[in-house]
Amino acid sequence: MTLLARHHLPPKEGDYNLRNYLEACETFSWAEAEKAFSWKKTGRINMAHECVDKHVEEGYGSKTAIHYINGEDEYKLTFKEVKEKSDHLASVLRAHGVKKGDIVFIFLPKHPDCYIAMMAVIKLGAIAGPLFEAFMEEAIRDRVADCDGKFMITDHVLGKRIPKNDLPSLEKIFITSSPEHCEAGEISLPAELAAIERESDITEWLDMESGLNIHYTSGSTGKPKGVVHAHRAMVQQYLTGKWVLDLKNDDVYWCTAHPGWVTGTVYGIFAPWLNRATLVVNGGRFDARSWYRTLEKTEVTVWYSAPTAFRMLMAEGNDLQKEYDLSLLRHVLSVGEPLNPEVIYWGEETLGKRIHDTWWMTETGAQLIVNLPSEVIKPGSMGRPFPGIQVAILDDDGNILPHGEVGHLAIKASWPAIMREIWKNEEKYHSYFPFPGWYLSGDLAILDEDGYVFFQGRSDDMINSSGERIGPFEVESKLIEHPAVAEAGVIGKPDALRGEIVKAFIVLRKGYKPSDELLEDIRQFVKKKLAAHAAPREAEFIDQLPKTKISGKILRRELKARELEKINKR
Ligand code: WTA
């Protein structure tokens, strides 16, 4: 990869919340950022209060908090309505025993109910565990069992995927549908809301270290790990919302991620609501026309999405967007996977906008490397460290490498949004800090002389498909549960549209013959049991997997090297 981007894109004219990056870096302090919060005066801390209730108290109750759109279904909720609905739901949950520190899983589609549930859980001081709507039985079991989850909020459709009999810890399942849709033992929320009065003074006051949300995330080894964040994260989430998303009072903001992914929670709920922006919630799946229609119809001004989505729009050609009035759109951002320079040039040409790449991770809790609207973009770079954040590229021994050399992307610890813990896994938590004072991301990168960071890949086997983190071990474990599969090795294969796709190498058990039907059956097995996005898009039968001599571990690197060689030969 070359460091010299074809050409740099200068900032466009605009009245940005942060006008000068270098100046901000010099004078920066997190303490200054804290002044925006009501707890500076009252001492009463709770994320849900800062996101919703505070705005109502300050006279913005009639402002639109959520603009929901899903095909023909469309409506708005004000901050006052979100406050009252989340107060009411919190009252019901409390009556059912939910209290501070409990984990409450939220397994709902991209729908206002999901956002209200997040606020209700957080109001009680409980830890919100949003689950991606495509998760199937196994993905749910892994997560709920890992933290002995007691509570789950879901609907009668997704709820069918919960393997209740395998989850003895799960005491109560709340269903957002009426009683006739509930199975025995499930609790109908509409019925409970009718029976239990709304308490308006329900918010639990917390301290900065109290648990806020838990997101399970994949790595190259083992099952997904529970990354827990604390309420202190709000300081950085607010300030990145203000400076990077550039949110102002009149903004209508659309983050396309589901809250089950960290982006959908932190930048789909917290950061925009801390900045009092209106959220657009689009319930539908990706479809180029309906996405452009959403931008037009809900009058989106600030838009945060992912490279795969931009590439899919790009694949539609340069004319489709002309059918829509996108004149209100003023700021576009991207996250989750490498943003190709070509996509940035496409954005310039077709939308007339620069696409601002940002880098962060579930574990970091907020953006750390960013392209600010007031600064030059070097296409191919993820941007520069947010003020107050120090980045370095380290060699394998923890020494700082000079500009231009590839090494481990590391961040000087600590910062307000960094994870509080990995649930019940101290060893894993410490593994992020192999060298004193540095958080190691697992990404490989280059830093140039201006401080711009260029992503180069991962140092481990983690797969990133369409911006979604997929652990090869999780997929391999599921594959070998299929009766025909003896062994499986899973890698990320480079893909022009999705960044990477999941590719599986499968050794069959004796008595099974390779066939296309069998491959499809195995693929469907993973899709139905684990999650659609984790199912191998490509699979290949192989006689034997390459393994390490001593421990007999699958050499995914070798599989990947062979695959890359095949691609290069073509
Ligand atoms: C990758 C998502 C290239 C990276 C917020 C990181 C990126 C992982 C970028 C975290 C980017 C994220 N360019 N790669 N701008 N942003 N990544 O936890 O490998 O789902 O370590 O958090 O995504 O994924 P996660």
From TrEMBL:
InterPro entries: AMP-bd_C (IPR025110), AMP-bd_C_sf (IPR045851), AMP-binding_CS (IPR020845), AMP-dep_synth/lig_dom (IPR000873), ANL_N_sf (IPR042099). It is an enzyme of class 6 (ligase). Pfam families: AMP-binding (PF00501), AMP-binding_C (PF13193). Residues 58-420 form the AMP-dependent synthetase/ligase domain. One of its GO terms (cellular component) is cytosol. Transmembrane segments: none annotated. The keyword Hydrolase does not apply. One of its GO terms (biological process) is acetyl-CoA biosynthetic process. Belongs to the ATP-dependent AMP-binding enzyme family. PANTHER family: ACETYL-COENZYME A SYNTHETASE, ACETYL-COENZYME A SYNTHETASE 1. This is acetate--CoA ligase. It comes from Bacillus canaveralius.
